Backbone:
């Protein structure tokens, strides 16, 4: 279908698609991304089934958490972006979870030692002291983070060659957990192949994952998008690699 659309039509489609929530189904048939071998949802669900009180930090629209088949008796989630709050509350209603607004880098609005499990998938920042504070002794933090240099190929194409920040490196991730008093039990990384089959998919992705190219608009990056469109037309899908870090850590007794 997209092959029949010209550049301006594809840009218009990517601009018009709604980006509320954390559901990427609009990209079906237009972009693909490999899944990590560790299976975050399956592994997280196994831990949720054993938990008594759990927290999902930066839940987005709750799309991932909503797939947990056996939630714990107490289940909470935080989200910072106001448009996502209503989506998350609706998605998590069947799990009887409560969703509260909380800044990504601020204080978690819970008493100390409330949860025996804290999870997060792709947090924008990680407030390690707060995670350690709300965990019970013996409690677990289990998360899949975005790693350093994720989609760097797309970033460099759009913005020119950019330095790769090491703030999201595995060593920084482990160091942040340990500095907060947690013990790292598992730390893994994986690079995942992403393919963008049309420029409209790129526009949608950059509007939704807005920290990839800060300040992105299709208008301000018109020339780069035109070059990308020509590249896809002549050479096939644009390929980038997302970086993922799996971490599991516990709070000592």
Residues:
């Amino acid at each position: 279908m997209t092959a029949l659309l010209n550049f301006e039509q594809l840009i218009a489609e990517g601009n018009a698609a709604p980006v509320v929530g954390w559901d990427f189904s609009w990209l079906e048939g237009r972009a693909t991304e490999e899944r990590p071998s560790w299976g975050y949802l399956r592994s997280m669900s196994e831990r949720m089934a054993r938990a008594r009180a759990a927290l999902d930090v930066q839940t987005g629209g709750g799309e991932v958490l909503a797939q947990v088949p056996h939630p714990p008796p107490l289940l909470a989630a935080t989200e910072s972006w106001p448009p996502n709050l209503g989506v998350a509350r609706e998605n998590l209603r069947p799990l009887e979870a409560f969703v509260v607004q909380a800044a990504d880098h601020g204080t978690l609005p819970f008493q100390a030692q409330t949860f025996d499990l804290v999870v997060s998938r792709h947090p924008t920042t990680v407030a390690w002291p707060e995670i350690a504070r709300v965990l019970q002794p013996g409690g677990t933090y289990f998360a899949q983070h975005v790693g350093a240099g994720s989609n760097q190929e797309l970033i460099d194409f759009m913005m020119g060659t950019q330095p790769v920040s090491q703030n999201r490196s595995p060593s920084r991730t482990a160091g942040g957990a340990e500095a907060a008093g947690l013990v790292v039990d598992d730390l893994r990384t994986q690079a995942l192949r992403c393919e963008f089959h049309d420029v409209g998919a790129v526009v949608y992705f950059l509007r939704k994952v807005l920290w990839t190219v800060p300040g992105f608009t299709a208008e301000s990056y018109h020339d780069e998008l035109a070059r990308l469109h020509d590249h896809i037309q002549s050479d096939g899908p644009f390929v980038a690699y997302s970086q993922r870090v799996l971490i599991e850590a516990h709070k000592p007794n």
Notes: The chain has a mean pLDDT of 96. Helices lie at 7-16, 40-50, 82-92, 128-134, 152-159, 170-179, 199-208, 222-235. Residues 17 and 26 are 8 Å apart (CA to CA). The chain has one domain: 2-250.
